[in-house]
Amino acid sequence: MDPSPGFEERYGTRVCKLKKSLYGLKQSPRAWFERFTQFVKKQGYTQGHADYTMFIRHSLEGKTTILIVYVDDIILTGDELPEMKNLKAQLASKFEIKYLGQLKYFLGMEVERSKEGIMVSQRKYALDLLKETVMGDCRPAETPIDPNIKFGKKEGNVVDQTFDVSLVSQFMNSPKEEHQEAVYRILRYLKSSPGKGLFFRKGQDKGNESFTDADWAGSTIDRRSTSRYCTFIWGNLVTWRSKKQNVVACSSAEAEYRSMAHGIC
Fold first, then answer.
1. Alpha-carbon 60 to chain mean position
2. Where are the beta strands (DSSP E) in the chain?
3. pLDDT for the residue numbered 159
4. Among 203, 255, 263, which Cα is nearest to 239's?
5. 55-76 tens-digit pLDDT
6. How many domains does the chain have?
7. Distance CA 141, CA 196 (A)
8. Which of 101, 131, 148 is at the close of a domain?
9. Which of 75, 148, 181, 244 has minimal Cβ neighbours within 10 Å of its Cβ?
């Protein structure tokens, strides 16, 4: 470890003794989060059950303050401004933090505000991915994948392993050329619309909607079906998933009911 600038001029040949290092230890993230959790709970916040990194506080006036933490990145939002100001002061007294202003960038997500609502996208992440894969000058594609494509145990040359999403990621242990072409298709789709994202619009509709669907024996390898669902809260998309079912469905009705159960859960 190199001494800090100006240390040698002041202290000569003396050295610093490192008593304890936070970063690099396996238990450091757990120890940090446990201490942070205890402190936030003392401020009157309740830890979420579905997401342990989220803390919520409801005031007697019916207002809400929400805190979300990921490692050492924190989002603070709500409609009780005095409480938000007080919490920031309390956090600063116990932890070394820096206020970065309104949320603009968080974990690869870009956030833009307007009078109509909030736009969330991953434009920078998509462009960086295209640059890393040398696909910045590729021909754009209108769709991310051919809807009629069926991957199976076909013969073909093995290619270098690559990470991607959903359907393609199922063949990461032994990817073939057809899988690589599918990944290129996804990258070409990102090229056509790197700034496409989710728009959370302000509105008067306070309802919740969920949509589910499933194919039947869509996998040509194990004949298992794939469940799909998405959920809208106040007209805005908040959750979505596509996952292969654990067992083989004996009928299309069974596959649909399993998908519906996943979506409701």
1. 32
2. 46-47, 54-58, 64-70, 73-78, 105-106, 109-113, 117-121, 197-201, 208-214, 226-233, 236-244
3. 42
4. 263
5. 999 998 899 999 999 877 899 9
6. 3
7. 14
8. 101
9. 148
User: For residue 21, what pLDDT is reported?
Assistant: 62
Exposure string for 187-198, b = 16+ CB within 10 A, e = fewer:
bbbbbeebeebe
For the stretch 184-195, pLDDT in tens is 888 888 888 888
Domain that holds residue 45: 22-101
| pLDDT value of position 153 | 59
Is 104 exposed, middle or buried (CB count within 10 Å of its CB: 0-12, 13-18, 19+)?
exposed
Question: What is the identity of the amino acid at 48?
Answer: G
Q: Identify the domain boundary among 202, 217, 234.
A: 202
Residue 183 falls inside a structural domain = yes
In this structure, the answer to whether residues 198 and 250 fall within a common structural domain is no
- Do both 215 and 248 map to the same domain? yes
Task: Let me know if residue 15 belongs to a domain.
Answer: no
d(CA 209, CA 240): 12
SS3 string, 147-177, reads CCCCCCCCCCCECCCCCCCHHHHCCCCCCEH
In a domain, residue 251? The reply is: yes
Q: What contacts 142, CB < 8 A, 6 or more positions away? A: 189, 192
Question: Which pLDDT score, from 0 to 100, does residue 164 have?
Answer: 40
pLDDT along the chain (265 residues), means of 10: 82 79 69 90 92 92 92 89 92 88 88 91 89 87 74 52 56 73 84 88 86 86 88 91 88 92 89
Dihedral sign for Cα atoms in the order 106, 180, 214, 223 = negative
Based on the fold, state whether residues 131 and 193 are members of the same structural domain.
Answer: yes
pLDDT at 155: 54
Residue 13 carries which side chain, given as an amino acid letter? Answer: T
